[in-house]
Each structure stands twice: as structure tokens, then as C-alpha cells.
Specification:
13 strands, nine-stranded mixed β-sheet, alpha/beta, 7 helices, Rossmann fold
Length: 255
């Protein structure tokens, strides 16, 4: 397709994003799907076409979704992955869970991994990727790693809280550059043991794992921060979404 100026625009690949689900209240008795606009905006800005995935427990629906998209974003949210999924029981400090959401996201994630669809996990989405690969989580940083710095900022998410060190040679370094990167931080859980087939790609100064990715070079990337909230303030963060979109476009062109 040519623009009026004669430039070729690459077609936008379809990028699926998992939404959150609100709990019913007396005022809004029907649950609602919710997604911060920053996720969709980042996908659009990166050259993708964002699509939300309503939940389903039907594997045929999940397959139909994945037939139509070339990339997947597992979004974050104010909830925790049920510890039973990584062989533990809930301890003090554990937050609320959303089993219906986690069940759906895990099914979509595993089906996407089987198809080698590029996957980006944000915050809780990174933690879910780690669990999907057999890794475990710190249920509450304050209680289990008292030496860790605060990872829950009270100020605007578009402003960073602390640096991370991005490992040279990692897929994440392809996205944002190697070395120090300033990130925002809104999590009380973290990766404890990294899942089989994954490696840490970014670490905070206090030792908390802030980025994970597949060891096999495929685009399966998790970040513990919210890059989509910082595309204006710390521009390298858009690179995470740009690389996802580019990998999705390559996959669609080469099958």
C-alpha cells in the first residue's frame, strides 16, 4: 500500500493484549473488561494493531484468537498469580488472586508458546511467564526479601523509580540497549527461581530479577516494569513494543 507521498508502509501486524476483569459491585453488577490505554497506545505507536482478548475457557476459541494474531502481550494488574501454580501455598503478604484471568492467560500463553508467537509479559505478565516455565515467585518482597529496596512507587508511573542493568547480548538489550536503564516499579512480588528454558536479562541493584527471556532466542520477553507508561519520558522503553511488533511482522511474512 502506498501513501500519497509514495512511501511503502509495512502492514501492521495484529497484536493481542489480555485485559483485566473488574469484580461486580452494587453500582456495576456486570463485570467489565479493562485495559489501561497505555498498552494499546504503545502497540499502535510501535506499528502494531492492538486487539483485546475476552476470556474463554474453550481451547478452540483460544486457537481461533491465535490464528488471527502475530504477537501477544500479557498485561499486568493489581493481583497475584495463585501460588498453587508454582507448588506453594499462600503465605502472609500474598495479594488477591484472579483465578479466571490467570487460567485464561495461562492457556493463551501456552498455546502462543507452542506456535512460537512472539510474547511480551508486563509486570504480572512476566511473573506468569516465569511460572509457565516452571519457575517460582517471591510472594511478598517486604516479608521475604527485607533487604530489597522498595519496588512500589507512589508517584506517577511515567517517572522512573530505580535503575536496572540490562544484560549484554540479551534480546532485551536488542529492545532497549545494554547497560543501565531507569524503570518504574509497581510490584510487591518478584521472580524467585527463574523457570527452565528462561534466563534473567535485567536485574535491579538490590538483586531483584527485573527481566526474563527465552534462552532459545525466540521472542519471549518479560519485564517487571511498565515500559508502555514511559514511552514519552524514557524513550528507549518503546523499543520493547517496537521489537515485539517487528518480530510479529516477520513471523506473519515468513509463516
Amino acid at each position: 500500500m502506498k501513501s500519497p507521498h509514495g512511501h511503502h508502509h509495512p502492514r501492521r501486524p495484529n497484536i493481542a493484549i489480555t485485559p483485566d476483569l473488574t469484580a461486580p459491585t452494587p453500582d456495576t453488577p456486570t463485570p467489565r473488561y479493562e485495559l489501561k490505554t497505555t498498552y494499546a497506545d504503545a502497540v499502535l505507536r510501535a506499528g502494531g494493531l492492538p486487539f483485546l482478548l475476552p476470556y474463554s475457557d474453550d481451547s478452540m476459541v483460544i486457537d481461533a484468537y491465535l490464528d488471527r494474531v502475530s504477537g501477544l502481550v500479557i498485561s499486568g494488574g493489581a493481583f497475584d498469580v495463585p501460588p498453587e501454580l508454582y507448588g506453594e501455598t499462600a503465605r502472609e503478604g500474598m495479594g488477591p488472586t484472579k483465578p479466571a484471568r490467570t487460567t485464561f492467560e495461562m492457556a493463551v500463553l501456552k498455546a502462543a508458546l507452542q506456535r512460537r508467537i512472539p510474547v511480551l509479559g508486563i509486570c504480572g505478565g512476566m511473573q506468569l511467564i516465569n511460572v509457565a516455565y516452571g519457575g517460582t515467585l517471591v510472594q511478598d518482597l517486604k516479608l521475604e526479601l527485607p533487604t530489597a529496596a522498595s519496588h512500589q512507587q507512589n508517584h506517577d508511573r511515567s517517572q522512573p523509580l530505580h535503575p536496572v542493568e540490562v544484560r549484554e547480548g540479551s534480546v532485551l538489550a536488542e529492545c532497549v540497549g545494554k547497560g543501565q536503564l531507569m524503570v518504574n516499579s509497581t510490584h510487591h512480588q518478584a521472580v524467585k527461581t527463574v523457570g527452565n528454558g528462561l534466563q534473567a536479562s535485567a536485574v535491579a541493584p538490590d538483586g531483584v530479577v527485573e527481566g526474563i527471556e527465552s534462552k532459545d532466542g525466540s521472542f519471549v520477553v518479560g519485564v517487571q516494569w511498565h515500559p508502555e507508561a514511559m514511552v514519552e519520558t524514557v524513550p528507549p522503553h518503546l523499543g520493547v513494543y517496537k521489537t515485539l511488533v517487528n518480530k510479529a511482522r516477520d513471523r506473519r511474512q515468513h509463516g
